[in-house]
Every structure is written in structure tokens, then in C-alpha cells.
Amino acid sequence: MLLAAGCARLLDWDDLRVDPGSDASLEAAVDTGFDAAQDAAETGPTSARWPERPAGATTPGGGKTLFWVARRIFLGSQDHDGAPVTDAWRGWGYDLDGRCTTEASDPAVHCKPVGPPSGVRDGDGCRDNNYGARFMGPVVAGTKRAFEDEFMTSLVSGAATWVLRLDDVGDGDDDPYVPGALYVAASTATPPKFDGSETRAILSTSVVDGDLEKPVVRFPKGYLRDGTWVSGELAPADLRLPFGKRNSTPLSFRAVVLTTRLAPDRTTATSGVVAGVLSVPAFVAFFTPLAADFKLCPGDPIYTGIVDGIARYPDLSLDAPSLQDPSKTCDGISMGLGFELAPIPPPTTVTPPPTPTAVCGDAGTD
Length: 366
Prior knowledge:
two-stranded parallel ribbon, globular, alpha+beta, 18% helix, disordered N terminus
């Protein structure tokens, strides 16, 4: 119950749908939609995996450098069409470990859950997204506010957002060499049009020495397969998620893959997916600056309760090649997000992020 109340306070939601008098209310919200028959149907051969690299030389081919800005970022309470759906998290992310995990999964092939086995079930097509199942799903299900709608509204109003750069983009559907980079764009004074006419300033935290040609987040092994750009195989990356009152909050993935489908004319990029795994400390680092915006600080009993709950989220093994090690307790939290992109001209300006008001010492500073 402490965790449910903490989430409501964090997001300025004080009207929970779950029963505030029940200590099991949060777990009930977590388990909503976990249907045994559906789980059984999803243990078959179909898995949600990203496309493999096509054959060919991974060398430059004279393609274009293109930039896109994220006009939508899906957090896990809406489906791919932007409709609020119970357990929408099940459709986000990828099957990271190559296994279909249910409550009845063979312990010989899965790491040991920190909590009950019901806390490590996969989504549709065996997608790994325990962030969605244990955090985003329960928080949204336990409130009467359209949190993700409000977040989307902030993006179309000009809030900070992602900018994706792709290099050496050709005309074909397959290309073994399309490296990329990810920036965070600063907020704008007026709502953007997302029509390809407006450039965006880039936050200085996204680049080295103020140089747009030195992005902090690079995907040197990116490629194009069947019209879908893939950042490469699973690899570590320190992303920053544009969110809330802050320009960004850290997402330090131990392993992550990004994909997006490019239109044949390269004017749009849709069906974007971010799928990865974070350590518990990295997840807490992602959560802490968001909590600080609502004056929820380390040392506060509610903050402590939420962090204690996060410690029970792991469903993967961080250091195992397959992200599963049945001899160890799970220590990685899977996460699935989504995005849609619109074209922009090449950015030319780097700007520092605004200095956030200190609420919890230096917690959550950009």
C-alpha cells in the first residue's frame, strides 16, 4: 500500500482506483490482465524480436544524413495507436532473453525472481517489460488521470524530446551500415508543427564540448532491414528520457536496442521501440529526479517504500550473455517504450538545460 500511495503522490494523483484500505491493492493492480490462457497462448514459437542485420559490408555507402524529432513517446499505458488500453505494456518492448516467461516457467532456464513468480511474466509475443508490468501499469491503472495523454500533450506543446540522427541512409530497404545517434532537444516557446520545417536546439548534455558532431549517445553498428532501422545488437547505452518538469532523466541501460520503421520516402519514421534492461540502481536513478519534482526525496518514508518495491522488479540477469542465468537471482529490470518521429532540418544550435530548482539537494539535476 505504501508503494501505491507513493506513486499517487509522485504523479500528483491522489484519487486511486485501487482500494486504499487493502495492503494487497498494488499487487492486485499489477496482476490485472494476467490471464493464464493468454499467457499459455504466448508461449508458442512466435517471439517479438528485432530484425537481424542484412548481409553485406558494414562500410559507408554515400547515403544521406537525416534527422527526426520524436512527436510521441509511449510510456506504456497506451497501445501503438495511442489508445489507452488495460495492460498496454504487454505490446511494448522486445523478447530480450529468447524465452517466454510465465508463472509456471521452468526454473532451470530462468533466473530466480526476487519476489513471487507472478512478478516476472512476459507480455505479448514474449516481450520483456517488467517496468510496464510492475511500475507503469499499476500506477496508471490505479489513477483516474490520463497521465500519458498529459505527457503527449506536453510534447506537442513543445516540451523537450528526442532527436534521432541517422547517417548514410540510402533508398533501399536493406543496408548493413546505417549508424545513428540520439540527442535530447530543448523545449520550444511555441508548439512545433512537426512538418519538417522547424529545427530544434539540442541540449548540451547530449553532446561533447558543445559539438553536434560528437553526440554522447551513438549507435555505430546501426543497420536497416526490411525498411526497419535497428541500432545494432543489444549494447549498453546511457540514454536520457525527456520527462515531466525536467528536460530529461537518466536511463542507463546495461543493454538496449532501438528500432523504427522508415517510410520509403524517408519523411516519417514510425513504430519506434526502445527495449532494454536496467540495473536496480539505474532504475532508481531514473525514478529519483521525477520524484524530486514532487518534493518526494530520499529519506522520505514514501520514497523509501517505492524504492523498496523497485528492488522486487528484476526479471532478467544483467551479466548473462542471454540475459538469463538460472543459477542466480534476477538483477535486471526489463523496459519497453515506444516513439514516433517527424522529420526536421539538421540542428545547428546547442543550448544548456535550464537549472532545476533544488528540492532534494542535487537529486535529479540534469
